Amino acid sequence: SRRAQLRLCLDRLKGLVPLGAAAGRHTTLSLLTRARLHIQKLEDQERRALHQIEQLQREQRHLQRQLEKLGMERVRIDSIGSSLSSERSDSDRGESPCWGTAGESSGRAG
């Protein structure tokens, strides 16, 4: 019957809504009032959670941009470092045979 269906729905609602001290005795009106307040509380929590998600996403995008900047700076610094390193190694290679030649010629002389 319709009344039995309504009672079943109210019992289900009672299981979903925190009733606190009023759990033992409640009227349909008090149950529905508590349900409404509980729904409003959940909606407020959802709004705050969505706001926090938006803030965290903004922060994540900001940090991602900073990370990309640091990555570009690192590539630039690495390329400067590698060009300096190759210049040094070229000059080292240029000097190395001279030292070796000088050492060999003096070794042959002795």
From TrEMBL:
Superkingdom, taxonomy of origin: Eukaryota
Matching InterPro entries: bHLH_dom, HLH_DNA-bd_sf
Domain BHLH: 1-42
Gene3D superfamilies: Helix-loop-helix DNA-binding domain
Pfam families listed in its UniProt record: HLH (PF00010)
Record keywords, A-Z: Coiled coil, DNA-binding, Nucleus, Transcription, Transcription regulation
Entry-linked PROSITE patterns: BHLH
Coiled coil: 39-73
Annotated compartments: Nucleus
Disordered as annotated region, ranges: 81-110
GO molecular function, one term: DNA-binding transcription factor activity, RNA polymerase II-specific
GO cellular component, one term: nucleus
Name recorded for this polypeptide: MAD1 protein
